[in-house]
Amino acid sequence: MAGKSIIEKPAKLSTYAGIVKDQANYLQNQIEKLLQFAYTESRQLHLKTETVNVHNIITEAAGNLSPLIIEKNAELKYLLNANGPVVLADRDYLLIVITNLLDNALKYSRNPNVIISTSNIPGSLIVSINDNGIGIEKKEIKKLFRKFYRVQKGDAYPAKGFGLGLSFVKKILDAHRAKIKVESNLGHGSTFIVMLPQN
Predict the structure, then answer these.
(1) What is the mean pLDDT of the chain?
(2) Side-chain half-sphere exposure of 57, counting CA atoms within 13 A
(3) Cα separation, 11 vs 17, whole angstroms
(4) Which of 32, 49, 144, 196 could join 125 in a cystine, given CB atoms 3.0 to 4.6 angstroms apart?
(5) In angstroms, how far is CA 103 from the centroid of its own chain?
(6) Distance separating alpha carbons of residues 30 and 150, to the nearest angstrom
(7) In what order do the strands lie in the sheet with 124-130?
(8) In the predicted model, is pLDDT for residue 20 greater than 70?
(9) With bands split at pLDDT 50, 70 and 90, how would you rate the model's confidence at 161?
(10) Which domains does the chain have, with CATH numbers?
(11) How far is residue 50's CA from residue 58's CA, in Å, rounded to a whole number?
(12) Phi, psi (deg, nearest 5) at residue 18
């Protein structure tokens, strides 16, 4: 039996237990923040800003999603070319942003091939997540960041969810005075580009 074979391999069991623990901690933190966002009347997020290395956040986000990456046999390519990957931000909220964008790139691709890149322009750090997924119609792009809005494909949604992820992402980035834009071609994937201020 598969379960018995895992039990007989304590090192592998310990690794899986560690992944489950990390996932549980991350999900609990995200759910708490997401519920605050969904049900609060306040328009402000309370940020705890600190110096954050975005490359470390990207690595952690990919780690959080390792079960999905394995399940979908996804290929991730890292082009972390930013010479200055440090920003002043709320670390937990920024982790939610990167994790959500990477999660979408994986969920909306049948055989995910995702490129995560960083670069610098004067005053900003650019994070780009490019996928080879189903893509988004131009008329849908403007609606992506509305609360509870979800892109439909025919009569069904292509992935499960409540339509809060991208709305939450936008709220977080607005609080950081950051920007996000989307480039997409239907049937040929999407690119989400985040511009984080480095003033």
Answers:
(1) 80
(2) 25
(3) 10
(4) 196
(5) 5
(6) 19
(7) 75-80, 113-121, 124-130, 190-197, 179-184
(8) no
(9) very low
(10) 2-197 (3.30.565.10)
(11) 16
(12) -65, -40
pLDDT tens per residue, range 40-88: 545 577 889 999 999 999 999 999 898 889 989 999 999 999 999 999 9
Tokens of 163: 């339509």
* CA-only gyration radius of the chain, Å: 18
Which long-range contacts link 67-75 to residues 24+ away (Cβ below 8 Å)?
67/19, 67/23, 68/103, 68/106, 68/107, 69/106, 69/112, 72/106, 72/109, 72/111, 72/112, 73/111, 73/112, 74/106, 74/109, 74/111, 74/112, 74/113, 74/114, 75/112, 75/113, 75/114
Strands 75-80 and 113-121 come out as: parallel
Distance CA 168, CA 93 (A): 10
Both tokens of 158, joined, read 């292509």
Match 């979800």 to its residue by tokens: 150
61 pairs with which residues across the strands?
Answer: none
Looking at residue 160, its pLDDT comes to: 46
Position 46: which residue type? H
Short-list 72, 85, 73, 70, CA closest to 117: 85
